[in-house]
Amino acid sequence: MGFTELANARLETIGFRSTAPRRAVLRAIEAAGAPFTVEDLLASLPDVGRATVFRTIKLLHELELLCRVPLEDGSVRYQLSQGEHHHHLVCRGCGRFTEFTDLELDARIQEQARAHDFTLEGHAVELYGLCRECRGQGA
Amino acid sequence: MGFTELANARLETIGFRSTAPRRAVLRAIEAAGAPFTVEDLLASLPDVGRATVFRTIKLLHELELLCRVPLEDGSVRYQLSQGEHHHHLVCRGCGRFTEFTDLELDARIQEQARAHDFTLEGHAVELYGLCRECRGQGA
DNA sequence: CTACATGCAAACCCTTTGCAAGCCG
DNA sequence: CGGCTTGCAAAGGGTTTGCATGTAG
Known about the structure:
homodimer, two-stranded antiparallel sheet, DNA-binding
């Protein structure tokens, strides 16, 4: 079962309607493959209204089906949430990013929260640099 | 020597002019004490033009004299760069944040970059949750 | 003096919203 | 059918820009 069906089922379960525009957005996201901007999605969905695309993205993000990655320049990318909690390696050259998980890193984060008497509810870790391809090309 | 003088000297060294508006912005930043929004700065500097405040902030950020902290809602705070590299605990209740450093955490980050054959140039770690005060009040 | 810096207002970008019409269940 | 959804266009906020004027060096 692909993302489109999965997400659609999930939406219906919670009480959201399965509509043509909604499914179109889901399909476009599944087809994207790589991280995409809202603009990318909009362009690939000329027949779906701007507002609907934004609303659907927001919905999916709230349901944690879509993962939002803030870039250093303030812009935002989205990509299918690979399920589990993870962090990102963001390439300054090509803009692509890779996910990784690191239990030890997460443990340090827990520990810092504890040390500061802080109730941890979430965290974000982004690494910026150059991937191998971009480093090679000096891009 | 305070931030204002330091930053001013640094700017002159690199070839930027020391102007009254520029110094006013520097003083306001130094006086802020806590993390501030651009709006805060603008309000505290009624006689300095909007554009100048933005331009100066950008300049200081590029020179790494000012540290930029993205919040979960997409808004941005700034604060004096405490020199050293650090991370943040951001309170969802009051919006304040605390800095911390963690060598072990940084080590994990280095290790992840190495493991992914990624040239690390920078990274951001933000923890979100509730500080003690806000947790108590259920704010 | 000359080039860089400023201030204003308008332009911009990205996202959200109001509202009438449409469609799912 | 009733109410959630949509699409449009307009509003919104946050930041940047063009240009004439001011001013540091």
